[in-house]
Amino acid sequence: MNYRDLGKTGIKVSEVSFGTWAIGGAWGKTNDEEALKSLDRAIGEGVNFFDTADVYGDGHSEELLAKATKGKEDEIAVATKFCRAGDIFSKENYSEETVRNYCESSLKRLNREAIDLYQIHCPPLEILQDGAVFEVLDKLKQEGKIRHYGVSVETVEEGLLCLQNPNVSALQVIFNMFRQKPLEELLPKAKQQNVGILVRLPLASGLLTGKFTKDHVFEQDDHRSFNENGEAFNVGETFAGLGFAKGVELSEQLKWIAEGRTSMATAALRWILDQEEISCIIPGFKNEKQVMQNLQALNEKPFTKEELEAIEKFYHDEVKSSIRGPY
């Protein structure tokens, strides 16, 4: 395992870390026994950082992480998120009383004295512009309930706004071969300011595995069946905002990236790790096999200059105009 600095936090995180949305819920059937075995396997392979949220399975993924990291709290860093259990557009949802309640509830489920990285969970731009929530987070940090804080953002504009706050230690962004916009301004600025970058949806909801055909049907409780067009939350959180059929079509054109590498998925993850601004990727998983497949990205050969140029051209010529929603 290789480790990178998580911005200015002083925490070194495994290049391949993991997100726990899938084991909490909203990605089809889940199995707690399998999830705990998978978490244990990841930790055994050197993974020392996990991302979760209070709404993943209504806190269930936090509880699973508490079990998996019991006795290892000093070795395994955990990031969690808040705000989406309430009305994300209401200022009251970001008041000291409300945020404190969110924090205390997460601490209880995680069975920890402090949260390593506490993130606002994709709030509206207006809340970030208002900025009052950051004062609340500063207070929680002073009290030792959280060690560092950051923001999970939907758009580059939101990310750039967050970088104006010197106490923001990390940004969580959607970034993959289908979503390259952060490369233009956001990632360089974050690196310049020593702000960590966590990459979610590195495989574009599975599109970049190359395993789907256009007639694939997802389970009803899988967000890929009910949020394709942004019906439940931001459209960009599902299939990178492309829509399933278009995403499958585009992924077919990218299958060449697997040549000389283990798979299309590990190649797609390797491409992200080749960007020096990235602290870690946080792919999801539901079983040990998926954990090991994602970790294989560490062993893939880096992309050549010619390959990188081809991927950039593909994004600008074929992908960019098809992304829906603000990004």
TrEMBL record:
Domain NADP-dependent oxidoreductase: 16-315
Parts of the chain that traverse the membrane: none
Source taxon at top rank: Bacteria
Name of the molecule in the record: Aldo/keto reductase
Source organism of this protein record: Mesobacillus maritimus
